Predict the structure.
Amino acid sequence: MKKLLIATTNKGKIKELREFLSDLPLQLLTLKDIGETSDVEEKGQTYEENSRIKALFYSKKSGLPAISDDGGLEIIALDGAPGVHSRRWLGYKATDEELIKHLSKVAKSLPDNKRDAYFRTVISLALPDGKTRSVSGEVKGVIAKKPLKNILKGYPYRSFFFLPEINKFYHENQLSKEEQKLYNHRYKAIENLKPIIIEQLRL
């Protein structure tokens, strides 16, 4: 069975990517599975640049095809911030709790008619020979004035992200299995990436 490396240490992402790729005949490995502890600096100015940097780095290190994603929350009233700096919105790699505290202040200051936001992601597939392909996915919602009490570890902003179409928060405890796919930006990207994985890995 062909192997594919999920090049992230984010447990939430690993869980989602394992689930979303479960229908492909692949052995999905994590960095922990292969004993890879190296870190790579994300110097890119876009989601695509960062996802390619990570996927290429770990593919070449491991000799395996690898996927990595980069994305973030984009608040329209803030000109798309925090965007590519979502995890480092405070100027450093903040904890979930710190980011939620900061977004709580931002959420209270947004006018009722200017709360639109997007979650966007770009996922890149890299091969050890240096070849890469990238795809994207997005979901639109609004920033709630107050967050859900339950925090989804690794995804602090989802506690604020409300989906008016179904009157639910973008949180796995709120969404049905079907809704988790319909409204998941990473799932949409993976669905776009699957034909490329099948082609490139000759599944």
Residues 2-200 form a domain with the Maf protein fold (CATH 3.90.950.10). Residues 47 and 121 are 7 Å apart (CA to CA). The mean pLDDT is 94.
